[in-house]
Amino acid sequence: MAATVFGADGAAAKTEPAPQAEPRPPVPAVAASTPAAAVEAEPECVRIKGAEACVGPDGSDRPGITIEDTANDDLHATVEYYLNGYLGTKYVIHNLGRKGEIRGNREIGKIVTFRAAVYEGNHRVRFGRWKTVRNITKYPIKRETRVTPAAARSRSKVCTSTKGASTLCFNEQGPNDRNTVVFACDTSADQYQARAEYFIAGDPTARFEIHQLAGVNTCGKAEHGDLAVSMYRASLFDHNRRVATRLYKYN
């Protein structure tokens, strides 16, 4: 089994954010371009007890965004992050492997705001401070704007929805496609949050999540290169409480 799993980016229309259970990080200030030498720099990391999250350039030993489990216990390490200064879509990678194993995304944006967290099941038990890095990858993912559920469906081969407000769609790698792309869409004007929960490349030890925070008729998008979605479901949350979901489907 490969040590690292990759993919990610997000987008949504300009609408008011839905209520959140916790404060979100401040929007990163616009900074001057980083010198080309920074692309060859070592990864930037944050650490808490049981987890280490890093963002690194392509040539480093931690390309993209990664999360390592650093404790031999019943908890698992997680990285939570936003891309390109946009707080309407939050990404989460749960590292379900053992101590010393690393999971992550290669596809990141020009700006990455991230933190490490530790979970027990679906309950977060501790988390660190947010850190923002800029211009660390040579070919960053650009954020699409105004992606609607209708547009996501038209660009996807597979979609599934919960009763309520959440839709997950994806278009996989094929003869004419460069990337596997996953959309998480909120389709109802309510207080609930749409989420996509899925696994890629047949790896059961890394669960990916897209939390769509921007409200009705908006979608977040994640890219996963040439790695296919292997299991997926759409879910609906009231803050951190699951209120609706489907059983996982296999692709």
Q: Would you mind describing this structure in some detail?
A:
With 251 residues, this protein is an all-beta fold. Helices cover 2% and strands 43% of the residues. The chain has one helix at residues 149-154; strands spanning 44-48, 51-56, 64-69, 76-83, 89-95, 102-105, 111-120, 123-127, 131-134, 158-161, 166-171, 181-186, 193-200, 206-212, 218-223, 229-238, 241-245, 249-250. Strands 4, 5, 7, 8, 9, 13, 14, 16, 17 and 18 form a ten-stranded antiparallel sheet that branches. The protein has a four-stranded antiparallel sheet with strand order 1-2-3-6, with no helix packed on it. Strand 10 (158-161) and strand 11 form a beta hairpin.
Write the topology of this structure.
Layout: E1 44-48, E2 51-56, E3 64-69, E4 76-83, E5 89-95, E6 102-105, E7 111-120, E8 123-127, E9 131-134, H1 149-154, E10 158-161, E11 166-171, E12 181-186, E13 193-200, E14 206-212, E15 218-223, E16 229-238, E17 241-245, E18 249-250
Antiparallel strand pairs: 1-2, 2-3, 3-6, 4-5, 4-7, 5-14, 7-8, 7-9, 10-11, 11-12, 12-15, 13-14, 13-16, 16-17, 16-18
Give a short account of the largest sheet: 10 strands, antiparallel
Helix content: under 10%
- Beta-strand content bin: 35-45%
Task: Report the count of strand segments.
Answer: 18
> H/E series, N to C?
EEEEEEEEEHEEEEEEEEE
Q: Evaluate the radius of gyration.
A: 17 Å
Structural class, from helix and strand content? mainly beta
Please mark out the parts with pLDDT under 50 across 5 or more consecutive residues, or reply none: 1-20, 31-39
What is the straight-line distance between the termini?
19 Å
Shape: globular
Mean pLDDT across the residues is 85
Q: What's the total helix number? A: 1
